[in-house]
Amino acid sequence: MSTQSLTTRIIMIGLGGATSSGKTTLAKHIQNCLPNSHILHQDDFVPPAEKLPKDPEFGYENWDDPEGAVDWDRMANYLIELKKTGVLGDHHSVANFNQTAAVPVDDQIISKWKQLSEKVFAEHQSRSENLVWVIVDGFLLYWDERIVSTLDVKAFIRVAEDVARARREARSYYSPEGNTWTDPPQYWEKIVWPAYLKAHKHMFENEDVLSGSPKSSELLLFESAKIDMADMVNTVMEKVLEVSS
Hints:
The chain is α/β, with parallel strands linked by helices. Helix content is 36%, strand content 17%. Helix 1 packs across helix 3, helix 1 (23-33) crosses helix 7 (229-244) and helix 3 runs parallel beside helix 7 (229-244). It is globular and about 60 Å long. It comes from Panaeolus cyanescens.
């Protein structure tokens, strides 16, 4: 059946967490489980470097503060329109150039979920509906309520500061202009971690991002020190197929 004769249904899967928490790795595994799926990165919507706020003391661009590190209007409008029309448009991701450490998941787990999701996909096709799964990942993903409102599945990986910092220092990052970014001195303690706490305190009881319970029962909270990548994949995929039925 031609997709041109089908209506389109978009299922949005949100994967948030601190920088280097494993969300992009999880996103790639989830994509491997789902036919007709795409990954959108929050990093694709950052403004040009000259429009970023600058640290008043050190003068470097602030890529992490939630208020200015993302062009929220552009990202929200894109996701809202995508949800409405099902049209991805000509979207290219610069975040694919960023390095992520390999965290393998057993092929049997991926294969199991792929078979189940292909069955769900076929069932929708038989009802003249084209099912598209869109995985959205970002370290500030839950800051803007307009974006949160588009998500059908919401997951968050919580990671200890020392673990996140060590992982970040071992990676290379690229700006939208294609330049390599390396954290300047004191950037982590002055910018990155405070911005992470600021961006997520509204999500947790007593604004306790480090150990508090989530305010929303819809949030799938993963403690990275207590759960492995395979279990994250299983939990997310179970929820994805539940909301896709």
